[in-house]
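Incident log, structure service

09:12 report received: a user says their structure output differs between two submissions of the same chain.
09:20 pulled the input from the user's history:
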Amino acid sequence: MKRRRFVRVSSLKEGMCIDQAIIDKMGRKLIVRGTELNAYLIEGLQKLNITGVYIVEGEDEPEEKVSPKAKANISRYSVPDRAKVQLSESVKKRVSEGIQYLYNDTESDDFVQTTNGIADDLMRAITENDAVAVDIEALKVCDEYTFTHCVDVATMSMVIAKRYGLSDRQIHEIGIAGLLHDVGKSKIPNEVLNKAGKLNDEEFSIMREHARLGYNLLMEKKDVPEEIALGVLQHHEKINGMGYPLGLAGDEITLYAKIISVADIYDALVTERPYKKPMSKRDAVEMIMALTNELDITALKSFLDSVILYPVGCEVKLSNGENAQVVENNDGYILRPKVVGLSSGRLYDLAGDLTCASIVIE
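09:34 re-ran on a clean worker, output below:
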């Protein structure tokens, strides 16, 4: 079984296979994902002051045999998902290069133009097939967390905004705010920003300033609507007033920030970082659902109605021990789709069949 783990550069060995791309500040790939490391490359990582990287190890698991009954029921019961946001490889490349350019050169004369161009690409991906849902696993544009996270948050925020009922102009603007919600981190010292371990109180206080720094950066730009800048400033505020940097509450928080906050928290929970393991999609959604005192309830509901955790056709592990394939997602029940057991061929309606009440996706 293949697994991905984080290894400090000082512990890397020749022959290990790197599971991320190494990209310099100009956006150039220095090491391609999947490369087998040698002494020269390991020395190069050390010279770049990179503390650690992801490697992949182990063997592929043999494919599980699917019973004839399962094949028949998968064909019989499969219902396509709602239209999802899809990014072509050319768009992913353009978006990846654009977002890296923005975060590496915030003083660029064409900063606003580049941001608008990326948001235009995402907007087209949503409108071309009338997308009303998002599968974040299909969005990854590169291997660097900050850039990927910003695109994930922007895209999810735009789909949530569409479900919320906002206008095309507002959806586009919230996409820009999502892309730039962490731009203030470009002003945070690297030793704090890239620290592999948990931040101490002083470092966390410095990190919390990224929202204010991002706001100040955008307010210096021409042609950036204040609503976008406020979305960046307030995306860590909480409905109960316990957020930062201003401790705003309820209606004091702009709608853009309320929507971005939901997408930001979810994507951070399910993404692996050097200092934490990723949370499962199910656990992340359950945690989000428990934050009703911190998150806007309408934005939260729009999120739950927009994100597809288990796309039709994907394989999942059930708590009864059987592997299954998703055949239909149940509206309103993000965690409980219909699945077909690969060995038994049984249809499990996890939302509508009371006999499945004790079965969950692991």
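09:41 both user submissions now match this output. Likely a transient worker issue. Closing.
09:42 reviewer note: The first strand starts at residue 3 and ends at 8. The two ends are 17 Å apart (CA to CA).
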